What does this fold into?
Amino acid sequence: MISPGDIGLPDTQWRPGQWEVISRALTALADGDRYILIEAPPGIGKSWIGLALARLLNKRTVILTATKQLQDQYLRLGAITARGRPNFPCLIEPEVSAAAAMCRAGLECEYAGAHGLRGCAYYDQKRDALAAQESVFNYAYFLAEANYARDFSPPRGSAVPLLICDEAHELRKVLEGFLSEEILWQQLSRVEAPLPAPPSTIEEWKQWGEDAEEPLKDYLDELKAVQRRRSGASEATRGVVRHLEMVAHLLRVAVWLQDAEDFIVLSEAKGVSFRPLWVAPYTEKVLSRFANQVVFMSATLGAPASFLSHLGLQADVGVQAFACASPFAKERRPIRYLPVAKVTRLDPSSMGKVVQAVDQLLDTNAGKKGLVHTVSYKLAATLRQASRHKDRLVFHIDAFGRERALHEIAGLNSHKQLG
It folds into this structure.
């Protein structure tokens, strides 16, 4: 039997259940099954399974994750990862991120594009990932690059042999976010097309998309002409670029609206948003068509037929599904239900009861490291302020601090908890 070390993973033996899962998945892929569903509990090592499939198949593989933390985990195992523009400074203007770089709006840059010079951290890591045998992207970045940059479809790219969707229980939420669009009323002030009066329907906005497409194209051409007359990096040039990007976004929405079906229209004070009633009609179009075979992995996939149905994927194209037993004994993973308060109410009395219950649990688990999940950052902040064990707790108060907090708790030898 092949060992983890034989394919570059940092161990000499597989964890319990890992090789069985890998073998079954390899057989299903060799048989030509289109979708393979792997429900594997925490602790079994799904990232190892994903990389093992990629390396043993010896075919180009793209792995998708929902979080930066899991992407970092793949990186530590030797995979090449790629991230979006906000994670990198612009090489030409270091004071701004690559998300605000001039190349975003078509200004010439010798480092940009598939054949640009090396030196730009953003484009270097993107080109490396696209050329790699195995690469790891987060869902949002992959969906944008595949559908807008065309890096994973002809003529600029080609379908990847294998797509592995890790954290696949997040897929519906991810796809809903990608398919949703929003435009602000102030952005529409210079668009020469009558706006539907709220409450409006998707059919009315489809008509707006048809009426607005040509005026937006003309306005975009005007802005590009202004842009070409400017040179160098300046605040005025950046203003033109930001405006150009906004108009390009409106044009994309106008074109997209013309084919939109089964979307909810939400008119609010600042603008209007469009959200899909369900993602099932779009999963193949925006995700799975970019791969020949797809592996879905999660600890909580649920019934295979239901999972595929909610995503609108056909179950008659070759599907294999299997679940793995937990590597931990049942006595080591008990579930205890303690009805304390309705945490969604977030009134002072409810929050006080939650703090008291958490403190009691910490009292009885004084020698253990663990995790405390809260329903909101407000409740986490209350814990931080009121808990008798605040010195044992490592907190993050927003999404940006999560990665730092996880790294801190992972490196602690003391028995601290992550709140």
Q: What stands out?
A: Residues 8 and 78 are 8 Å apart (CA to CA). Residues 202-229 form the longest helix (28 residues).
